[in-house]
Design goal:
Layout: H1 3-27, E1 29-35, E2 39-41, E3 44-46, E4 49-55, E5 61-65, E6 70-73, E7 77-79, E8 89-95, E9 98-105, E10 111-113, E11 122-127
Antiparallel strand pairs: 1-4, 2-3, 4-5, 5-6, 7-10, 8-9, 8-11, 9-10
């Protein structure tokens, strides 16, 4: 292999590694909110309190409680932004007397559907700047 080809391949490999690291660092997002009621997420019952959601490319969405509780959430699909609200939100479906986390909206991005409730239900929204949704 000639020196020129070797240097070109080395430069390409280094650029590829650096771009992956930068994209990964830029792609990770974290939001948090104080949830004032008990709820269910990922099939697990959780107490009221402060929770953070961590979204990292290529990994499951993680819900982290102030007490160290961790729940992995499977994303069913992304949801197109339905309003001009740029703030983060947690959306809960009220089903059989329980509030179940169904949507997560990151700032200025499409939402993440983590639960599809197929029967009639009401929503409770935590966060956001537009309270009439």
């Amino acid at each position: 292999m000639s020196r020129r080809v070797f240097l070109a391949l080395t430069a390409f490999a280094m650029a590829f590694q650096l771009s992956g690291a930068v994209a990964s660092a830029q792609g990770t997002q974290r939001i948090s909110a104080e949830v004032g009621f008990p709820f269910v997420a990922g099939g697990k019952e959780l107490a009221a309190g402060k929770y953070a959601v961590v979204v990292e490319p290529g990994k499951p969405v993680e819900l982290v409680g102030q007490d160290g509780t961790r729940v992995l959430l499977r994303v069913i699909t992304t949801l197109g932004r339905h309003d001009q609200d740029p703030d983060s939100e947690f959306v809960f479906d009220k089903v059989d007397g329980k509030s179940v986390l169904s949507e997560i909206w990151m700032p200025k991005r499409d939402g993440l559907l983590v639960l599809a409730t197929e029967r009639p239900h009401e929503h409770a929204v935590v966060g956001g700047s537009n309270p009439k949704k």
